[in-house]
From TrEMBL:
The keyword Transmembrane helix applies. Keywords: Membrane, Transmembrane, Transmembrane helix. The chain crosses the membrane at residues 17-38, 64-86, 93-117, 132-152, 164-185, 191-210. Signal peptide: none annotated. The keyword Membrane applies. This is Integral membrane protein. The lineage of its organism: Bacteria, Bacillati, Actinomycetota, Actinomycetes, Mycobacteriales. Residues 277-296 are annotated as: Disordered.
Length: 296
């Protein structure tokens, strides 16, 4: 009899989340395609066919952003899932999760609009929406694969052992894990901190390694250490270059014109992103030479 091996790609109980992510990704890609089509044909003078996408307008020509539809769908699906929390089955939860994924995609696609309270969809600031979508996909993907936040400790201990010692140990380990995540975020390593909440060894690596030069940690601890700040700047520019190239390329495809970024554009982005943290106000006069030493 042949030996068969069954491998679950999706963690048990995560089927609704998988369909939520699929709906999220499909909706985001379709939405970006439609918006780019509308923008490309905005100046057209010919009559529009019934099937051609167009902006949604309300009374008096009010432009209705698709974030509004996203908010409505997220609220409806959220209330539905809360209602199903006791007696709902997998099928019902999956349907609600799909609606939630669609709404979340429409919402995060205009995250920059909410953040800046102005329409920056096609501007430089509008790329915050793409970053938010990348973060959401990464977190959902890790959850689907079976990773859990604060994975350093086994939550099963809490369920199986109700002794004071066991539960105190779980709480202490959770607090220490969160403290590591805070240190990593203060060092400016957002993605390491985000993924490290699911894969804890990354938090130890991020907490030990050098801070990014513009981060609060560098502002507090590197002001009187120009060599360390210079090392942080050099390391940041060297390591960030391929990341910036890939990010700009993806953003060009999703948010703008599909082209590989030129070296001048990459250098400009590096110059914009990579800089030394400003000195704390109390030390501006006391250490005037430190900032000049960073480039030395």
């Amino acid at each position: 009899m042949p030996l068969t091996v069954h491998v679950d790609v999706v963690a048990p109980g995560r089927i609704p989340l998988m369909w939520c992510l699929i709906a999220f990704i499909v909706t985001f890609l379709v939405t970006r395609t439609i918006v780019r089509y509308i923008r490309r044909n905005a100046d057209g003078t010919g009559p529009r066919k019934w099937w051609q996408p167009r902006n949604i307008s309300g009374h008096g020509g009010l432009h209705i952003h698709h974030v509004v539809i996203g908010v409505v769908l997220v609220m409806i699906s959220g209330v539905t899932m809360v209602t199903l929390a006791v007696d709902g089955g997998v099928g019902e939860f999956t349907a609600a999760a799909i609606v939630f994924g669609i709404g979340a995609a429409l919402l995060l696609d205009e995250f920059a609009l909410i953040l800046h309270l102005e329409d920056v969809y096609w501007a430089e600031d509008g790329r915050a929406s793409v970053d938010a979508v990348f973060a959401a996909v990464a977190v959902a993907g890790l959850l689907i694969l079976g990773f859990n936040p604060l994975s350093f400790f086994d939550i099963g201990i809490w369920r199986d052992d109700n002794s004071v010692l066991a539960r105190t140990t779980v709480v202490i380990m959770a607090v220490l894990t969160l403290a590591l995540a805070v240190v990593v975020l203060l060092k400016g390593k957002v993605w390491t901190g985000l993924i490290g909440m699911f894969i804890t060894p990354l938090l130890f690596i991020g907490a030990i390694r050098l801070s990014r030069p513009h981060a609060p940690w560098a502002r507090w601890h590197y002001q009187d250490k120009p060599r360390k700040m210079h090392r942080a700047l050099e390391r940041e520019r060297y390591l960030r270059r391929p990341v910036v190239q890939a990010k700009l390329w993806l953003q060009h495809i999703i948010a703008g014109e599909p082209s590989f970024p030129a070296d001048s554009e990459v250098d400009a982005e590096l110059d914009r992103e990579i800089h030394a943290a400003p000195a704390p106000p109390a030390s501006l006069d006391a250490k005037p030479q430190v900032a000049a030493d960073y480039a030395g």
